[in-house]
Amino acid sequence: MWNRTQQKSICLISPRTTATGLPSTVFTKWTIRDSLLAGRIFKKMGPGVKEDQTMPEGRLKCSKLSIIFFLLNVSNFVVPGTGFAMRSCRISYNIAICKGGLRYVPQDVPSTVKGFDLSSNKISKIRVSDFKSLSLVTQIDLSRNNILHIDTGSFADLISLKRLNLNNNKLVELADDVFKGLSNLTELRIISNKIKVVASTSFRSLTSLNFLDISYNKLDNLTKVNSILQHLPNLRVLIIKNINLTTFHSWELTNSSLQLTSLDLSQNPITKFSITEDVFPNLTWFNIGGYQKPMTWDVRNQTFLSRVSSLDISGLQVTFEDMKTLLESVNSSLNSIRMYAMKYKPTALINVTCTIPTMSTLKFRRNKLSFISSNLFHLCINVTELDLGDNKIKTIKDEAFRSIKGLRILTLSRNKLPTVPAATRNIPTLAELDLSSNNITRLECYDFANLTKLRQLNLYLNQITTLQECVFKDLKQLQVLKLQNNHISKITGAFKKYLPSLKQLRLNANKITTIKHGEFMGLQSLQNLSLHDNQIHTLNNGCFIGLTSLTDIQLQSNDIKTQEINSIFNDVINLRRLDLRNNHIKYDHSSALPHPPFSQLSLLETLAIPAQHSRGKAQLPCNILQGLTNLLVFNTRNSQLLSLPRDMFNYTPQLQTLDVSSNDLVDFSPDIFHPIQNLKSLYISRTSLRSLDFLNDAGLTKLEFMQARKNEYSVISEKVMDSLPSLIYVDFQGNSFTCDCNNAWFLQWIENNKQTQVFDAYRFECNYPTKLKGTKLLDFDIQFCTVRTEFICFVSTTCITILFMVASFTYHFLRWQLAYAYYYFLALLLDTKNKNKQAPYHYDAFISYNTHDEPWVIRELLPKLEGEQGWRLCLHHRDFEPGRAIIDNITDAIYGSRKTICVISRKYLESEWCSKEIQVASFRLFDERKDVLILVFLEDISTFELSPYHRMRRLLKRWTYLSWPQAEEHTELFWEKLRQALTTTEDHAEDRFLLTVMDRP
């Protein structure tokens, strides 16, 4: 036979294939011959294929690739991790806030948060796995839990942690290395636990700690405190209030490198305080008061506390001699001293204290000073701040503060003064005066005489009823005036002429009813005006004239009913914030106002207003916001609105926050939002909304925050959430969700989305259907609603992979049988009407033989049939066209000959190409139903030997044949029979003759 080269297999995985595995092709009407030639689509066969080749290396690689492809696609079915919906947590300013009686640290907190608030829960144990992957967290609050134990290494991953709060828990012991990994921690609070035992290495890792508050525990002695301090080289602030210390001896502090600047030992029952060496060389703030038992003071060297500038000895009980000694210890550095609730006579104590030349701040509260004499502070010549609050003072002598020449801050709050004391008039240096929470009922014109440097005056929580026009006449530099929570009903010109420097005026929570024309015209520097919670029902035209610097006015919670507010705010053109909520403002026109009330406030950024009420309904004029071109925040919450005008926001293109909660809006028109495409926050809670579909066409692509609680919609659609691509926080609490397939997408989105935080999603409950009412929305099983895309991909790719693997193995073992069968059946369908249109035959017979039998063909067969009988034969080595594909030559030869003579031997049966030739001949036999096949056996082949060759056995069961071995003595008869076989027509005949009868396989 001809040479055949070794073939290579190419493994292709392409979506552009038909179900049969063939590339998509337009099929025309093919004959079997055309179909067989098209087998080149599968493989273009070249010369020299090895007949004994079983599993080519290329095909083995294809099988391996199929397996790899299968394994890769299994990963498509992996369930994605949980998303941004957290059980009992929410994110606010990059801080995870987790409440609701949690017993364990939640594990679904995003790793990107910077803070973690777990306070006020029921967590009893901190485990090693609790804070994994939170390497960016800088602060954690675990206060007010039930924490009894912390596993070693629980904080090891918190490499960025700066502040840790463990206050109000039940810790009894701090074990070895309990704070391991917190090398960057700077602030630690462990207040109000039950700590008795501190291991020697508990604080070893806290090398950066500079603030420690371990107050209200049971450490009992200073040795335990020392075991903590020896590992904290950078500690600056130590607070150990009420840890049950009974003695303080400096020799118990063996750490010579203490750099404390602040120390709080208050509320400890210390009976002996002894410092025999300089253990606090940098101490500047010291608190040792707060316990009502006698103490012995023993500081051997006055230089040991010589750097203390702030001292708190409130409630300290030592002998008066020890008190002198104590104060002498800080005589050269003390700036501020606090002495609350002392047991000594005020005069003696103040005299001793005021002898310290550097002392400038004296805080003397709760010392039962009902009367202040003229000479009580005669030694306090260097005091600049004096706090006498909460002393029940009723009387102050006029000369009481005359000796304090440089007094700047005087606090007399929470006393029982009936009037402004005349003593304050003798303090021309005073900058701040606090007279709040007294019994002052009237202010006189001379009450603040000479206080020309006063900058802040607090008169709130008194019983002042009126303000005379002259009362503030000398307060040229006053900047802050607090008159809230009095009984003022009339202003009566107090702000018409004076207070040119005033920036903040608080008149809220009084009984003011009317603001008249020019009432504040003297306050040209005023920036903040608080008039809320009064009884104002009338705002006269020009009532705010002169307030050219005003930026913030609060008028909420009054009884404003005026119908002419169109020009009231024209005089405050620099206003930035205006609050008119909880009033009863009415408008003459519901469609459009002839004179919009805020048209001159082009700089206004925040506006809160009520709606017009009429017969139980509410509405807003369509041009209510005209002129507010820079408005950023608009609030009309709780106004009983039934609708919003369609073109209401045409005037506010910069609006970023809209709050229309607690109204009866029912629905929105998407057109409302088209002018405010910069909107970032939307509050639509309790608005009776039945759907959020209006958001589909609203165009709010920049919206980041949406609160939509307690409405009437039950389904959240995919289209709604897709219309809000920038949304990072949404609150759907209190809605009546439907637990059916309509919400399947929403449930998947809650769990899988990584951008939008759905606040408290794990508490959403089903309201419909009735049988599921009260169950958690996220517990609803949606698997029967939709087929997961991942599952579809998994099944599809798995089937494709398995099909590819089966096709690979089938192609190797049965590729020719399948190919020929395919094209055979294709030809049956497409070539029926052309069956009889056969082209003229070129040969009488095609000889199919193996190269090992070529001598018999040349010497015996060819001379007889061609030489003597005159038949024209086709032999491959002589008549095949060079350069054509082998399969093409075979097909053309068989279909171009009347007969096909198969010269069969054992070598013939073993040859792959001979097998292909007999396959083509048999296909022609079955297709054309003609007698075209002649079988000639050159060897006696037993039935057993033929058993592997099923095609040959099938032919022999239905067809006759010639045997050369049986004709050796009658060769002429053999050739005659063969001539007769070639001479017979192609019509099918059932009766055929045999030269020699053999056992048929």
From TrEMBL:
SMART domains: LRR_SD22, LRR_TYP, LRRCT, TIR. One of its GO terms (molecular function) is signaling receptor activity. GO terms for biological process: inflammatory response; innate immune response; signal transduction. InterPro entries: Cys-rich_flank_reg_C (IPR000483), Leu-rich_rpt (IPR001611), Leu-rich_rpt_typical-subtyp (IPR003591), LRR_dom_sf (IPR032675), TIR_dom (IPR000157), Toll_tir_struct_dom_sf (IPR035897). Its main location: membrane. It comes from the Eukaryota. The keyword Glycoprotein applies. Pfam families: LRR_8, TIR. Keywords: Glycoprotein, Immunity, Inflammatory response, Innate immunity, Leucine-rich repeat, Membrane, Receptor, Repeat, Signal, Transmembrane, Transmembrane helix. GO terms for cellular component: plasma membrane. The chain crosses the membrane at residues 65-86, 794-814. Residues 841-982 form the TIR domain. It is a single-pass type I membrane protein. It is found in: Membrane. Belongs to the Toll-like receptor family. This is TIR domain-containing protein. The lineage of its organism: Eukaryota, Metazoa, Chordata, Craniata, Vertebrata.
